[in-house]
Specification:
Length: 196
């Protein structure tokens, strides 16, 4: 029985740069999703917070950078609804399709005191997939805790580089949206007035 000699980079036609350990380390790090959770307390009863979040007319008042949010199929905010979303980020417009994947309870008018309100969605855009899982709980009769789990996955070299080089930017943006909503809900502040 003949033994084969160990493969040495550059000496065999079987060797490929993608088999090198450094490539695998970079690829694994670059293909890893960005995951984080952010939260904020809002000094309003949960029912009021949920109604403000669910009303599409209020989105431009607190969702900084929103250019367009229009249902393609279904009714805004309802389970299974697909919407076209366009956001302005600096000099760049980013477009994606949002799908509501969970809304519990379905009727937001009569929420039991001990229940958790769930509102989940996925957004798919060029080179990016994200999932947002929001939970709203009653911290006290007059205070709502909003927790948001976020996950981003990237494809395409440009978006993978963005995810690799600027992972903190996604968390920072999520926190900014929550702070903007809090200012809108508690004080009536409109982000469009602050940016114009």
């Amino acid at each position: 029985m003949q033994q084969s000699e160990p493969s040495v980079p550059g000496s065999s036609s079987d060797w490929h740069p993608k088999s090198a350990p450094l490539f695998h380390t970079w690829k694994e790090k670059n293909d890893a999703p960005i995951k984080y959770t952010v939260s904020i307390e809002i000094a309003l009863p949960r029912e009021e917070v949920v109604q403000l979040l669910a009303d599409p007319a209020h989105l431009p008042k607190w969702l900084r950078g929103l250019v367009l949010h229009e249902p393609l199929s279904g009714e805004h905010g309802q389970l299974g609804t697909k919407s076209r979303v366009v956001m302005q980020m600096g000099q760049r417009k980013i477009e994606g399709t949002e799908t509501i994947t969970r809304r519990e309870p379905a009727d937001l008018r009569e929420i039991q005191q001990t229940s958790v309100v769930h509102f989940d969605r996925e957004i798919v855009g060029e080179g990016m997939w994200s999932a947002v899982r929001d939970r709203l709980t009653e911290a006290s009769p007059e205070t709502t805790l909003w927790e948001s789990e976020n996950e981003y996955r990237f494809s395409g070299l440009l978006m993978k580089l963005v995810g690799l080089l600027m992972p903190g930017a996604f968390r920072k943006q999520s926190q900014q949206h929550m702070q903007d909503f809090k200012a809108f809900a508690e004080q009536g502040k409109d982000v469009r007035e602050a940016t114009n």
